[in-house]
Amino acid sequence: MRAIFAESINPENPLAGLVVGERPDPVEPEGWTTVRVTSSSLNHHDLWSLRGVGLPTDRLPMILGCDAVGIAEDGSRVLVHSVVPDPADPRGYSLLSERHQGTLADRLAIPAGNLVVLPESISDADAAVLPTAWLTAYSMLARGRVKHSDAVLVQGAGGGVATAAVILAHALGKRVYATSRDEAKRERIAALGATALAPGAKLPERVGVVIETVGAATFEHSMKCAAPGGRIVVSGATSGHLASVDLRRIFALQLEILGSSMGTQLELDELVQLVADRGVQPVIDSTFDFADARSAFERLATGDIFGKIVIRH
Ligand SMILES: NC(=O)c1ccc[n+]([C@@H]2O[C@H](COP(=O)([O-])OP(=O)(O)OC[C@H]3O[C@@H](n4cnc5c(N)ncnc54)[C@H](OP(=O)(O)O)[C@@H]3O)[C@@H](O)[C@H]2O)c1
């Protein structure tokens, strides 16, 4: 079958190990099923994998991808929850493409319990962005107890997780502030209902929840923008994972720094329902045909994207 996979690891030049080619059909372990994938989307996770983060060389070749929409064996249109129970992993789970083959292929083996039936109102392209970036954003807002906050700050607003967090927080009726390094992206984020700011800019108010995926470049600002009792929810560190923290601020303002990864299947169900009920429209940066996946990866690696990159299978 056709597959987009990592053949080798290269920390400096991740695209060097990327192959768009052929891999054997999936073999289903007991209790698993096969989905014929119709759409998927890219995540920064795929670049980390090509750099060898979370993907040791002894697991190569590995089909990349955590997101998939497809047709299940019973003919229903389904979304794949890519968090797979994994007793061998210290987290107790792994994401598709870490230990089990990923979603960027014609067919995907997945535990039968990891499928969510899609409502007709959500298109394949919109659904394809939900299982990783959007689920992460949804879960981060929940973990940050957003319902107890009127205002939210989202750092690095152009990214997949970040645009999702802006749209979801806005849909939940919150005042949303968002930073981006790029002026054109700031204009686009403002059109989604956020007050867009340059990185490090002073906010008109302190916020109850900060959505942090950028890491080192923005973390100090995130700490400064949190209101007393505020929650800084961290799910990524694109710009670097070592940040210094003024501990006095944490205890004086009784701040919480919360780690977050992906989300539960129940949260994915809730997210699908929310998107369907409120007609929430994900931001799609661009769509590429499967055969042109290398161009899609090149675009992701530039960091110039706004929203999600979808792959049409
Ligand atoms: N833990 C989890 O479950 C989980 C799930 C999904 C993602 N993640 C992580 O979260 C991060 C974001 O993922 P994604 O898929 O949303 O990535 P993405 O779509 O590639 O977006 C990354 C965004 O980060 C910002 N950025 C990058 N470098 C920066 C820098 N040096 N300074 C300031 N901003 C910078 C950019 O925003 P601007 O250009 O607007 O400034 C960029 O759009 C990644 O590190 C990913 O691994 C974790």
Automatic annotation (TrEMBL):
Residues 13-311 form the Enoyl reductase (ER) domain. GO terms for molecular function: oxidoreductase activity. It holds the Pfam family ADH_zinc_N_2. It comes from the Bacteria. This is NADPH:quinone reductase-like Zn-dependent oxidoreductase. It comes from Allocatelliglobosispora scoriae.
